[in-house]
Amino acid sequence: MPVLDLQSTLYGPRILALLTNAPANALPSVWQILWRSAPIRVATDGAANNLVAPCTIELAKTAPDRVLPLPSLISGDFDSISTSTRKFFEASGVELVLTEDQDETDLTKLFRIVSTRFSSDFDGIVVLGGLGGRFDHTLATINSLINMAEVVRKPIWVLDAYNAVTVLPANASTQVHLPPSIKKLLPGACGVMPIVQRPTKVTMTGFRWNLENAEIAFGGLISSSNQLAVSEDNPYLEIRPSEPVILSMEVDWSHY
């Protein structure tokens, strides 16, 4: 049975940090800490615009504790990156990978690249941003997670200012390990949501309101505003959906 461990993803030494183009207030407040601690760092082209200032040598002279390491690579169709940003990272020796396919989002294409380039070098991905901002972008992020699950084959958590979100696979029981040490980050609110346009049934335990082979659908029952009910004796959620579903958990980053 697959086991997802949020603690290992947030605190582990082999994490890939992927920065997407997102409003500053939609990013987790600790995104710079996660970026610094990740041995592999990548960004979509639009997100690169927000990395120039914290990566500059000038900042290193005045506020070295605020300097961010350069990304390992930047990828996209480069319609969102400014000319000055592109020149800055080219001069800094950062690899820029042009992906012109317009049938996939920059996030989807970047998932493909990292799964090819770095697959043996990381144990999970934290996507910084990707939620909040434009609603169509949020849905596109979820769609990328569904489409790329079999390509990446490693845990992917999307983090924003308030949430940790992942997609759970169809026709498999997945356990989510939430030991007491990670519970300080989780106030308890959570949800299990259908997303594909097919009938979805789910059995789930570890919640205040569990479900047993229940059909969930927009226009019908969805498991929003649920509560985590894991304990020290049994620190696991277990979810078995017939189709991919979204698991979201509220996060209080002040306790990170």
Keywords:
256 residues; alpha/beta; Rossmann fold; Jelly Rolls; ten-stranded mixed β-sheet; thiamine diphosphokinase activity
The CATH topology of the largest domain is given as Rossmann fold
Uncertain runs are none
The helix/strand series, from N terminus to C terminus, equals EHEHEHHHEHEHEHEEEHEEEEEE
- The CATH homologous superfamily name of the largest domain equals Thiamin pyrophosphokinase, catalytic domain
Shape: globular
Portion in helices? 25-40%
CATH architecture of the largest domain: 3-Layer(aba) Sandwich
- Which strand order do you get reading across the main beta sheet? 5-4-3-2-6-7-8-15-10-13
Radius of gyration (CA) equals 19 Å
Q: What's the overall average pLDDT, rounded?
A: 92
Provide a short characterization of the protein structure.
The protein is of the alpha/beta class. Helix content is 27%, strand content 29%. The chain is globular and about 55 Å long.
How would you explain this protein's 3D organization?
This protein has about 260 residues and is an alpha/beta fold. The chain has two domains: about 1-160, Rossmann fold (3-Layer(aba) Sandwich), CATH 3.40.50.10240; about 160-255, Thiamin pyrophosphokinase, thiamin-binding domain (Jelly Rolls, Sandwich). The chain has nine helices and 15 strands. It has helices at about 5-10, 30-35, 45-50, 50-55, 55-60, 85-90, 105-115, 135-150, 180-185, and strands at about 5, 15-20, 40-45, 75, 95-100, 125-130, 155-160, 165-170, 175, 190-195, 200-205, 210-215, 225, 235-240, 245-250. Strands 5-4-3-2-6-7-8-15-10-13 form a ten-stranded mixed beta sheet. It has a five-stranded mixed beta sheet with strand order 1-9-14-11-12. A hairpin with a 3-residue loop joins strand 7 (about 155-160) and strand 8. Helix 7 packs parallel to helix 8 (about 135-150). The longest helix is centred in the middle third of the chain and has 18 residues, at about 135-150. The chain is globular, with a radius of gyration of 19 Å. The mean pLDDT is about 90.
